[in-house]
Amino acid sequence: MIKVLVAEDMHIVRGALVALLGLEADIEVVAECASGDEILPLAQSARPDIALIDIDLPGKDGLTAAAELHEQLPEVRTLILTSLGSPGTLRRALAAKVNGFLRKDAPADRLANAVRGVAAGRRVVDGDLALAAWDSEECPLTAREIEVLRLASVGSEPTEIAAELFLSAGTVRNYLTTIVSKLSARNRVDAVRIARESGWL
């Protein structure tokens, strides 16, 4: 029996996922939650084989939670569900050491097969998305620039970003100027939009 934890913040979607998996004779949902912050403690108590995680969760996002699981409970394999099927998002997921990556609009039978594949030790990735990621350009921003842009994307001012990252406000402004330039953006807001659409943020 493959034991699964389901993390999805939309109640109807989570209910549908649990019901779909419940139809499979070899799969059992042992835990479910609605936020990224709940995943690790729940996995520590329920000990699932697979954590099925929505990428866009409140609290910790799905990729952060998956990376945390990989570090703390490496025996729990992770399958990310997303409605954001961009190549950049897939690259970020693979960097977070997830074991599978599936779009939410995939056919229902593909979900159960993806769970089985990940449980068997295979890496399961949507084929069209994998090809798109192969052909897509890599993110031109450094890890630090992405960190700065992520904080700017939620409305933090340069002084707040500086305090959060232990940098000077001048250094943060320089980072933001470089980011806008690298992305050929009109301004900071446009840079956030470009990075989001490319799946880099």
Summed up:
The protein has 201 residues and is α/β, with parallel strands linked by helices. 53% of the residues lie in helices and 15% in strands.
Walk me through this protein's architecture.
The two termini are 36 Å apart. This protein has ten helices and six strands; from the N terminus they run βαβαβαβαβαβααααα. Helix 8 (158-165) packs across helix 9 (169-182). It is an alpha/beta fold. It has helices at residues 11-22, 36-46, 62-72, 87-95, 108-119, 127-135, 143-153, 158-165, 169-182, 188-197; strands at residues 2-7, 27-33, 50-54, 77-82, 100-103, 124-125. The mean pLDDT is 88. Strands 2-1-3-4-5-6 form a six-stranded parallel β-sheet, sandwiched between helices.
Number of strands: 6
CA-atom Rg in angstroms? 18 Å
Q: Oligomeric form of this entry?
A: single chain
Q: Kindly state the percentage of residues in helix.
A: 40-55%
Enumerate how many helices there are, as a single number: 10
Q: Assign the structural class, choosing from mainly alpha, mainly beta, alpha/beta, alpha+beta, or little secondary structure.
A: alpha/beta
Strand-residue proportion: 5-15%
Q: Outline the low-pLDDT stretches.
A: none
Envelope shape: elongated
